[in-house]
Amino acid sequence: MAVGSRKRAIPYDRQVFLNCPFDDAYSPLLRAAVFTLHACGFTARIALENTGSESARLDRLVQIIGECGLGIHDLSRAHLTSPTDLPRFNMPFECGVFYGARRFGTTAQRRKRFLLLDKDPYQSQKTISDAAGLDPRVHGNDPEKLIACVRDFLAQKLDPKPIGPSRIAALSRDFERALPAITARADLTLADLEPLTAFNDWYLLATRWLQPQATPPA
Amino acid sequence: MLDPVPGISLCPACLESQRDRVGLHQDRSHESRRRALLECDNATRHITPAAGNLTLLYRRGPGPTHTLRRYLEAYRRFRSLPIGTSLAQECVSPCDSFFEFRFGEHEIFALRPLHDFGCPDHPTRVEICDYCGVSARRRPPPPWYVSAMVSKRRAGLNGGSAAKHRRGRSSGVPRAKMSASKNGISTDPSTRTRTSLVGMTIYQPDLQPSALGRKLLDALER
Q1: Which of A155, A200, A216 sits opposite B207 (nearest CB)?
Q2: Would you state the torsion angle of the CA atoms of residues B151, B156, B161, B166, taken in this order, to the nearest 10 degrees?
Q3: What are the pLDDT digits (tens) for A119-155?
Q4: How large is the C-alpha radius of gyration of chain A?
Q5: Confidence at residue B138, expressed as pLDDT on a 0 to 100 scale
Q6: How far apart are CA A23 and CA A30, in angstroms?
Q7: DSSP H or E run through B96
Protein backbone atom coordinates (compact mmCIF):
# COMPACT_ATOMS: atom_id res chain seq x y z
CA MET A 1 0.00 0.00 0.00
CA ALA A 2 1.22 3.44 -0.71
CA VAL A 3 0.55 5.30 2.47
CA GLY A 4 1.27 8.59 0.81
CA SER A 5 -1.50 8.17 -1.72
CA ARG A 6 -3.98 7.40 1.04
CA LYS A 7 -2.94 10.51 2.83
CA ARG A 8 -3.60 12.62 -0.21
CA ALA A 9 -6.91 11.02 -1.02
CA ILE A 10 -8.54 10.91 2.38
CA PRO A 11 -8.56 13.92 4.69
CA TYR A 12 -6.81 13.64 8.01
CA ASP A 13 -10.02 14.26 9.91
CA ARG A 14 -11.71 11.40 8.10
CA GLN A 15 -9.23 8.71 9.02
CA VAL A 16 -9.95 6.79 12.19
CA PHE A 17 -7.39 4.64 13.92
CA LEU A 18 -9.21 1.55 15.13
CA ASN A 19 -7.35 0.09 18.06
CA CYS A 20 -9.05 -3.12 19.03
CA PRO A 21 -8.42 -6.81 19.57
CA PHE A 22 -8.02 -9.06 16.57
CA ASP A 23 -9.47 -12.36 17.59
CA ASP A 24 -12.38 -14.49 16.49
CA ALA A 25 -14.56 -13.49 19.43
CA TYR A 26 -14.12 -9.83 18.61
CA SER A 27 -14.62 -10.25 14.86
CA PRO A 28 -18.34 -9.26 14.82
CA LEU A 29 -17.54 -6.13 16.78
CA LEU A 30 -14.62 -5.26 14.55
CA ARG A 31 -16.75 -5.64 11.44
CA ALA A 32 -19.53 -3.57 12.99
CA ALA A 33 -17.07 -0.78 13.84
CA VAL A 34 -15.53 -0.76 10.37
CA PHE A 35 -18.94 -0.81 8.71
CA THR A 36 -20.12 2.09 10.88
CA LEU A 37 -17.06 4.16 10.15
CA HIS A 38 -17.57 3.87 6.42
CA ALA A 39 -21.32 4.39 6.62
CA CYS A 40 -20.58 7.66 8.45
CA GLY A 41 -18.18 8.85 5.77
CA PHE A 42 -14.92 7.95 7.50
CA THR A 43 -12.32 5.32 6.84
CA ALA A 44 -10.88 2.81 9.25
CA ARG A 45 -7.17 2.37 9.70
CA ILE A 46 -6.22 -0.79 11.49
CA ALA A 47 -3.04 -2.62 12.28
CA LEU A 48 -4.18 -5.47 10.06
CA GLU A 49 -3.91 -3.49 6.88
CA ASN A 50 -1.17 -4.71 4.62
CA THR A 51 1.09 -1.74 4.25
CA GLY A 52 3.58 -3.51 2.05
CA SER A 53 6.24 -1.98 4.20
CA GLU A 54 9.22 -3.75 5.62
CA SER A 55 9.40 -1.46 8.60
CA ALA A 56 8.75 -2.64 12.10
CA ARG A 57 5.20 -3.19 13.19
CA LEU A 58 5.43 -0.41 15.75
CA ASP A 59 6.70 2.04 13.14
CA ARG A 60 3.78 1.19 10.90
CA LEU A 61 1.39 1.72 13.78
CA VAL A 62 2.94 5.05 14.63
CA GLN A 63 2.65 6.08 11.01
CA ILE A 64 -1.02 5.12 10.91
CA ILE A 65 -1.67 6.98 14.16
CA GLY A 66 0.00 10.05 12.73
CA GLU A 67 -2.26 9.96 9.70
CA CYS A 68 -5.48 9.66 11.66
CA GLY A 69 -7.40 12.54 13.14
CA LEU A 70 -9.58 10.29 15.22
CA GLY A 71 -9.04 7.18 17.27
CA ILE A 72 -11.26 4.49 18.71
CA HIS A 73 -9.64 2.42 21.41
CA ASP A 74 -11.37 -0.65 22.74
CA LEU A 75 -9.80 -1.48 26.08
CA SER A 76 -12.25 -4.23 26.93
CA ARG A 77 -9.81 -7.13 26.52
CA ALA A 78 -8.08 -6.85 29.86
CA HIS A 79 -8.33 -10.48 30.85
CA LEU A 80 -5.67 -13.15 30.82
CA THR A 81 -5.37 -14.97 27.56
CA SER A 82 -4.57 -18.58 26.99
CA PRO A 83 -2.23 -20.33 26.59
CA THR A 84 0.15 -17.95 28.33
CA ASP A 85 -2.27 -16.73 31.00
CA LEU A 86 -0.91 -13.26 30.49
CA PRO A 87 -2.81 -10.12 29.55
CA ARG A 88 -2.12 -8.37 26.27
CA PHE A 89 -1.05 -4.76 26.46
CA ASN A 90 -1.25 -3.82 22.78
CA MET A 91 -4.43 -1.78 22.99
CA PRO A 92 -3.49 0.28 26.06
CA PHE A 93 -0.03 0.83 24.60
CA GLU A 94 -1.36 2.07 21.26
CA CYS A 95 -3.89 4.18 23.08
CA GLY A 96 -1.01 5.77 24.95
CA VAL A 97 0.86 6.44 21.72
CA PHE A 98 -2.25 8.09 20.31
CA TYR A 99 -2.70 10.18 23.42
CA GLY A 100 0.95 11.17 23.36
CA ALA A 101 0.65 12.33 19.76
CA ARG A 102 -2.37 14.37 20.73
CA ARG A 103 -0.67 15.79 23.76
CA PHE A 104 2.77 16.59 22.40
CA GLY A 105 2.35 16.58 18.63
CA THR A 106 2.06 19.30 16.04
CA THR A 107 -1.00 21.48 15.68
CA ALA A 108 -2.74 18.93 13.47
CA GLN A 109 -1.93 16.15 15.90
CA ARG A 110 -3.40 18.14 18.75
CA ARG A 111 -6.71 18.16 16.92
CA LYS A 112 -6.98 14.44 17.44
CA ARG A 113 -10.10 13.15 19.15
CA PHE A 114 -10.58 9.71 20.51
CA LEU A 115 -13.17 7.40 21.98
CA LEU A 116 -12.54 4.80 24.64
CA LEU A 117 -14.65 1.67 24.60
CA ASP A 118 -15.20 -0.84 27.31
CA LYS A 119 -17.20 -3.99 27.71
CA ASP A 120 -18.70 -3.24 31.13
CA PRO A 121 -19.41 -0.05 33.01
CA TYR A 122 -16.62 1.08 35.32
CA GLN A 123 -14.28 -1.61 33.97
CA SER A 124 -11.68 0.96 33.05
CA GLN A 125 -11.64 2.32 36.58
CA LYS A 126 -10.13 -0.98 37.64
CA THR A 127 -7.89 -1.64 34.68
CA ILE A 128 -6.67 1.80 33.68
CA SER A 129 -7.48 4.24 36.43
CA ASP A 130 -5.28 6.92 34.89
CA ALA A 131 -7.93 7.34 32.23
CA ALA A 132 -10.42 8.56 34.81
CA GLY A 133 -12.58 11.30 33.39
CA LEU A 134 -12.30 10.13 29.81
CA ASP A 135 -15.71 8.46 30.10
CA PRO A 136 -15.40 5.28 28.10
CA ARG A 137 -18.53 4.13 26.29
CA VAL A 138 -19.77 0.63 27.04
CA HIS A 139 -20.70 -1.83 24.29
CA GLY A 140 -21.28 -4.99 26.30
CA ASN A 141 -19.91 -7.05 23.40
CA ASP A 142 -23.04 -6.19 21.44
CA PRO A 143 -22.34 -5.06 17.86
CA GLU A 144 -25.43 -2.87 17.76
CA LYS A 145 -24.40 -1.05 20.92
CA LEU A 146 -20.94 -0.63 19.47
CA ILE A 147 -22.44 0.84 16.31
CA ALA A 148 -24.32 3.38 18.42
CA CYS A 149 -21.19 4.29 20.42
CA VAL A 150 -19.07 4.77 17.30
CA ARG A 151 -21.73 6.60 15.33
CA ASP A 152 -22.44 9.04 18.18
CA PHE A 153 -18.75 9.74 18.56
CA LEU A 154 -18.32 10.44 14.85
CA ALA A 155 -21.47 12.56 14.70
CA GLN A 156 -20.20 15.07 17.26
CA LYS A 157 -18.48 17.35 14.77
CA LEU A 158 -20.54 16.58 11.66
CA ASP A 159 -23.21 18.65 10.01
CA PRO A 160 -25.39 17.08 8.81
CA LYS A 161 -25.18 14.20 11.23
CA PRO A 162 -24.69 10.75 9.74
CA ILE A 163 -27.56 8.31 9.52
CA GLY A 164 -28.77 6.94 12.81
CA PRO A 165 -27.37 3.85 14.52
CA SER A 166 -30.46 1.74 13.84
CA ARG A 167 -30.21 2.58 10.14
CA ILE A 168 -26.54 1.63 10.14
CA ALA A 169 -27.34 -1.63 11.92
CA ALA A 170 -30.04 -2.35 9.35
CA LEU A 171 -27.58 -1.67 6.52
CA SER A 172 -25.09 -3.97 8.18
CA ARG A 173 -27.68 -6.72 8.39
CA ASP A 174 -28.55 -6.17 4.71
CA PHE A 175 -24.92 -6.62 3.84
CA GLU A 176 -24.63 -9.79 5.91
CA ARG A 177 -27.72 -11.13 4.15
CA ALA A 178 -26.23 -10.31 0.75
CA LEU A 179 -22.93 -12.00 1.58
CA PRO A 180 -23.99 -15.63 0.94
CA ALA A 181 -25.12 -14.79 -2.58
CA ILE A 182 -21.93 -12.89 -3.31
CA THR A 183 -19.68 -15.65 -2.01
CA ALA A 184 -21.71 -18.20 -3.92
CA ARG A 185 -21.20 -16.27 -7.16
CA ALA A 186 -17.48 -16.33 -6.41
CA ASP A 187 -17.57 -20.09 -5.81
CA LEU A 188 -16.73 -19.51 -2.15
CA THR A 189 -18.46 -20.00 1.15
CA LEU A 190 -18.95 -17.74 4.11
CA ALA A 191 -16.39 -19.82 5.98
CA ASP A 192 -13.74 -18.52 3.60
CA LEU A 193 -14.31 -15.02 4.95
CA GLU A 194 -14.18 -16.02 8.60
CA PRO A 195 -10.43 -16.16 9.26
CA LEU A 196 -8.67 -13.02 10.32
CA THR A 197 -6.45 -13.26 7.27
CA ALA A 198 -9.51 -12.65 5.11
CA PHE A 199 -10.52 -9.53 7.00
CA ASN A 200 -9.08 -7.15 4.42
CA ASP A 201 -11.11 -8.83 1.70
CA TRP A 202 -14.24 -8.53 3.80
CA TYR A 203 -13.34 -4.89 4.40
CA LEU A 204 -12.95 -4.15 0.70
CA LEU A 205 -16.15 -5.97 -0.10
CA ALA A 206 -18.15 -4.11 2.56
CA THR A 207 -17.02 -0.67 1.41
CA ARG A 208 -17.57 -1.58 -2.24
CA TRP A 209 -21.06 -2.77 -1.32
CA LEU A 210 -21.78 0.51 0.49
CA GLN A 211 -20.73 2.61 -2.48
CA PRO A 212 -23.94 2.22 -4.55
CA GLN A 213 -26.00 3.05 -1.49
CA ALA A 214 -24.51 6.52 -1.53
CA THR A 215 -24.95 7.05 -5.26
CA PRO A 216 -27.98 9.13 -6.17
CA PRO A 217 -30.40 7.31 -8.45
CA ALA A 218 -30.04 8.26 -12.10
CA MET B 1 -5.31 68.55 14.12
CA LEU B 2 -6.94 68.26 10.73
CA ASP B 3 -6.75 70.94 8.13
CA PRO B 4 -9.88 72.96 7.44
CA VAL B 5 -11.99 71.66 4.63
CA PRO B 6 -12.44 74.07 1.73
CA GLY B 7 -15.94 75.36 1.35
CA ILE B 8 -16.98 74.69 4.89
CA SER B 9 -16.98 77.52 7.28
CA LEU B 10 -15.58 76.88 10.66
CA CYS B 11 -17.72 77.54 13.61
CA PRO B 12 -16.27 80.11 15.93
CA ALA B 13 -16.75 77.70 18.76
CA CYS B 14 -14.11 75.51 17.21
CA LEU B 15 -11.60 78.06 18.05
CA GLU B 16 -12.38 77.88 21.67
CA SER B 17 -10.37 75.79 24.00
CA GLN B 18 -11.21 72.31 25.08
CA ARG B 19 -14.66 71.99 26.59
CA ASP B 20 -16.39 69.35 28.54
CA ARG B 21 -18.00 66.89 26.26
CA VAL B 22 -21.72 66.91 26.20
CA GLY B 23 -23.49 63.85 24.89
CA LEU B 24 -26.56 64.45 22.82
CA HIS B 25 -28.43 61.91 24.85
CA GLN B 26 -28.09 64.13 27.87
CA ASP B 27 -29.53 67.29 26.48
CA ARG B 28 -31.13 67.67 23.11
CA SER B 29 -31.52 71.38 23.21
CA HIS B 30 -30.22 73.38 20.33
CA GLU B 31 -27.43 74.92 22.27
CA SER B 32 -26.30 71.68 23.84
CA ARG B 33 -26.30 70.01 20.49
CA ARG B 34 -24.38 72.80 19.04
CA ARG B 35 -21.90 72.56 21.82
CA ALA B 36 -21.67 68.85 21.35
CA LEU B 37 -21.04 69.31 17.69
CA LEU B 38 -18.39 71.76 18.33
CA GLU B 39 -16.72 70.17 21.26
CA CYS B 40 -13.09 70.44 20.79
CA ASP B 41 -11.96 67.28 19.32
CA ASN B 42 -9.66 66.96 16.39
CA ALA B 43 -12.32 65.28 14.41
CA THR B 44 -15.27 67.43 15.26
CA ARG B 45 -13.63 70.77 14.97
CA HIS B 46 -14.43 71.00 11.32
CA ILE B 47 -17.90 69.60 11.36
CA THR B 48 -20.18 72.52 11.48
CA PRO B 49 -23.91 72.93 11.29
CA ALA B 50 -23.31 75.26 8.39
CA ALA B 51 -23.43 72.23 6.17
CA GLY B 52 -27.16 71.95 6.64
CA ASN B 53 -29.05 68.84 7.43
CA LEU B 54 -26.34 67.27 9.40
CA THR B 55 -26.20 66.08 12.88
CA LEU B 56 -23.53 64.46 14.84
CA LEU B 57 -24.27 61.54 17.01
CA TYR B 58 -21.75 61.19 19.69
CA ARG B 59 -21.19 58.04 21.63
CA ARG B 60 -18.54 56.74 23.87
CA GLY B 61 -17.10 53.27 24.06
CA PRO B 62 -16.39 50.62 21.44
CA GLY B 63 -18.61 50.77 18.45
CA PRO B 64 -19.66 48.67 15.48
CA THR B 65 -16.36 48.97 13.75
CA HIS B 66 -17.17 46.29 11.19
CA THR B 67 -20.32 48.09 10.04
CA LEU B 68 -18.49 51.34 10.18
CA ARG B 69 -15.77 50.15 7.89
CA ARG B 70 -18.37 49.03 5.35
CA TYR B 71 -20.06 52.42 5.44
CA LEU B 72 -16.80 54.17 4.94
CA GLU B 73 -15.76 51.93 2.11
CA ALA B 74 -19.12 52.27 0.37
CA TYR B 75 -19.01 56.02 0.69
CA ARG B 76 -15.47 56.14 -0.63
CA ARG B 77 -16.49 54.11 -3.65
CA PHE B 78 -19.58 56.19 -4.23
CA ARG B 79 -17.58 59.34 -4.28
CA SER B 80 -14.89 57.61 -6.38
CA LEU B 81 -12.32 58.65 -3.87
CA PRO B 82 -8.93 57.04 -4.07
CA ILE B 83 -8.04 54.54 -1.43
CA GLY B 84 -6.42 56.25 1.47
CA THR B 85 -8.46 59.44 1.23
CA SER B 86 -8.93 61.01 4.57
CA LEU B 87 -12.59 60.45 5.19
CA ALA B 88 -12.42 62.66 8.19
CA GLN B 89 -12.47 65.52 5.73
CA GLU B 90 -15.13 63.99 3.59
CA CYS B 91 -17.51 63.81 6.48
CA VAL B 92 -18.21 67.48 6.29
CA SER B 93 -19.82 67.16 2.86
CA PRO B 94 -23.34 68.53 2.81
CA CYS B 95 -24.52 65.04 2.20
CA ASP B 96 -27.99 63.72 2.23
CA SER B 97 -26.49 60.44 3.13
CA PHE B 98 -25.59 58.54 6.19
CA PHE B 99 -22.20 57.56 7.33
CA GLU B 100 -20.20 57.19 10.44
CA PHE B 101 -16.64 57.91 11.26
CA ARG B 102 -14.44 56.83 14.02
CA PHE B 103 -11.87 59.19 15.31
CA GLY B 104 -9.55 58.09 17.98
CA GLU B 105 -9.35 54.81 19.71
CA HIS B 106 -12.62 54.67 21.62
CA GLU B 107 -14.93 57.22 20.12
CA ILE B 108 -17.52 56.77 17.46
CA PHE B 109 -19.03 59.66 15.65
CA ALA B 110 -22.00 59.05 13.46
CA LEU B 111 -22.72 61.67 10.90
CA ARG B 112 -26.04 61.38 9.21
CA PRO B 113 -28.87 63.47 7.87
CA LEU B 114 -31.91 64.34 9.80
CA HIS B 115 -35.29 63.34 8.35
CA ASP B 116 -33.63 60.18 7.29
CA PHE B 117 -34.04 56.51 7.80
CA GLY B 118 -32.52 56.42 11.21
CA CYS B 119 -29.51 55.05 12.84
CA PRO B 120 -29.00 51.30 12.58
CA ASP B 121 -28.15 51.22 16.24
CA HIS B 122 -31.14 53.28 17.28
CA PRO B 123 -33.86 52.27 14.83
CA THR B 124 -36.74 53.39 16.96
CA ARG B 125 -35.39 56.82 17.57
CA VAL B 126 -37.46 59.68 16.20
CA GLU B 127 -35.30 62.11 14.40
CA ILE B 128 -36.04 65.78 14.61
CA CYS B 129 -33.78 68.30 13.09
CA ASP B 130 -32.51 70.61 15.75
CA TYR B 131 -31.75 73.23 13.21
CA CYS B 132 -34.77 73.35 10.98
CA GLY B 133 -37.28 71.78 13.32
CA VAL B 134 -38.66 69.45 10.68
CA SER B 135 -39.74 66.20 12.14
CA ALA B 136 -38.78 62.83 10.79
CA ARG B 137 -39.65 62.07 7.23
CA ARG B 138 -38.47 59.07 5.35
CA ARG B 139 -36.38 59.65 2.31
CA PRO B 140 -35.17 57.21 -0.27
CA PRO B 141 -31.73 56.01 0.67
CA PRO B 142 -28.78 57.45 -1.15
CA PRO B 143 -27.55 55.43 -4.07
CA TRP B 144 -24.48 54.20 -2.30
CA TYR B 145 -26.48 52.85 0.57
CA VAL B 146 -27.01 49.19 -0.19
CA SER B 147 -29.38 46.99 1.70
CA ALA B 148 -26.59 44.71 2.84
CA MET B 149 -25.33 47.54 4.93
CA VAL B 150 -28.30 47.42 7.23
CA SER B 151 -26.90 46.27 10.47
CA LYS B 152 -27.93 42.92 11.85
CA ARG B 153 -29.47 44.51 14.85
CA ARG B 154 -31.64 46.84 12.84
CA ALA B 155 -32.70 44.10 10.50
CA GLY B 156 -33.72 41.94 13.42
CA LEU B 157 -35.70 44.68 15.09
CA ASN B 158 -37.50 45.53 11.89
CA GLY B 159 -39.09 42.12 11.76
CA GLY B 160 -36.53 40.44 9.64
CA SER B 161 -37.47 41.99 6.32
CA ALA B 162 -33.88 42.73 5.54
CA ALA B 163 -32.57 39.71 7.32
CA LYS B 164 -33.99 37.32 4.79
CA HIS B 165 -31.64 38.72 2.18
CA ARG B 166 -28.66 37.97 4.32
CA ARG B 167 -26.63 34.87 4.04
CA GLY B 168 -27.24 32.20 6.58
CA ARG B 169 -30.53 32.27 8.37
CA SER B 170 -33.71 32.99 6.50
CA SER B 171 -35.25 35.35 9.01
CA GLY B 172 -34.66 37.20 12.20
CA VAL B 173 -36.01 34.35 14.27
CA PRO B 174 -33.73 33.86 17.23
CA ARG B 175 -31.54 30.82 17.07
CA ALA B 176 -32.91 29.37 20.30
CA LYS B 177 -36.44 29.59 18.94
CA MET B 178 -35.47 27.96 15.67
CA SER B 179 -33.75 25.05 17.29
CA ALA B 180 -36.64 23.87 19.42
CA SER B 181 -39.92 22.98 17.84
CA LYS B 182 -43.11 22.06 19.63
CA ASN B 183 -42.39 18.39 20.03
CA GLY B 184 -38.83 19.03 21.10
CA ILE B 185 -37.33 17.68 17.88
CA SER B 186 -34.65 19.98 16.65
CA THR B 187 -35.32 21.81 13.40
CA ASP B 188 -32.12 23.75 13.38
CA PRO B 189 -30.25 22.94 10.16
CA SER B 190 -27.04 22.71 12.08
CA THR B 191 -28.33 19.63 13.88
CA ARG B 192 -30.02 17.91 10.95
CA THR B 193 -29.45 14.20 10.48
CA ARG B 194 -29.13 12.30 7.25
CA THR B 195 -31.84 9.82 6.45
CA SER B 196 -29.87 7.88 3.86
CA LEU B 197 -26.37 7.48 2.56
CA VAL B 198 -27.20 9.18 -0.74
CA GLY B 199 -24.72 11.91 -1.50
CA MET B 200 -22.21 10.80 1.09
CA THR B 201 -18.62 10.06 0.33
CA ILE B 202 -17.82 6.43 1.01
CA TYR B 203 -14.08 6.17 1.22
CA GLN B 204 -12.50 3.04 -0.18
CA PRO B 205 -9.64 1.57 1.82
CA ASP B 206 -6.31 1.62 0.11
CA LEU B 207 -5.82 -2.12 0.36
CA GLN B 208 -4.71 -4.66 -2.15
CA PRO B 209 -7.22 -7.51 -2.42
CA SER B 210 -5.96 -11.02 -2.26
CA ALA B 211 -6.97 -13.57 -4.88
CA LEU B 212 -9.97 -14.39 -2.75
CA GLY B 213 -10.85 -10.71 -2.46
CA ARG B 214 -10.62 -10.20 -6.22
CA LYS B 215 -13.03 -13.04 -6.78
CA LEU B 216 -15.44 -11.54 -4.26
CA LEU B 217 -15.24 -8.08 -5.81
CA ASP B 218 -15.81 -9.54 -9.26
CA ALA B 219 -18.82 -11.39 -7.90
CA LEU B 220 -20.16 -8.19 -6.41
CA GLU B 221 -19.87 -6.40 -9.74
CA ARG B 222 -21.79 -9.08 -11.53
Answers
A1: A200
A2: 50
A3: 888 888 788 888 777 888 999 999 999 999 999 999 9
A4: 17
A5: 39
A6: 9
A7: none
Single pTM value for the model? 0.57
Q: pLDDT by residue (tens digit) across B96-108?
A: 333 434 333 223 3
User: CA of A187: how far to CAs of A23, A125, A173, A201, B215, in Å?
Assistant: 26, 48, 22, 15, 8
Burial of B78 (0-12, 13-18, 19+ CB in 10 A): middle
The helix-helix angle for A199-210 and A165-185 (nearest 10°) equals 110
Is residue B197 left, alpha or beta, with left meaning phi > 0 and alpha meaning psi from -120 to 50? Answer: alpha
Chain B residue with the nearest C-alpha to that of A190 = B216
- A28-45 mean pLDDT: 95
Residues of A in contact with B222 (CB under 8 A): 185
Whether ipTM > 0.95 holds is no
User: Residue B142 in contact with residue B75, Cβ under 8 Å?
Assistant: no
Residues 6+ apart with CB under 8 A from B66: none
Contacts (Cβ under 8 Å, ≥6 apart) of B40:
B14, B16, B17, B18, B19
CB-based contact A207 B203, cutoff 8 Å: yes
Chain B, 174-213: which have a CB under 8 Å from a chain A CB?
A: 189-210, 212-213
**What whole-number distance in Å separates Cα of residue A211 and Cα of residue B13?**
78
Selection from B99, B34, B52 nearest residue B73 by Cα: B99
| b/e map B14-34, b = 16+ CB within 10 Å | beeeeeeebebeeeeeeeebb
How far B152 CA sits from the closest chain A CA (Å)? Answer: 25
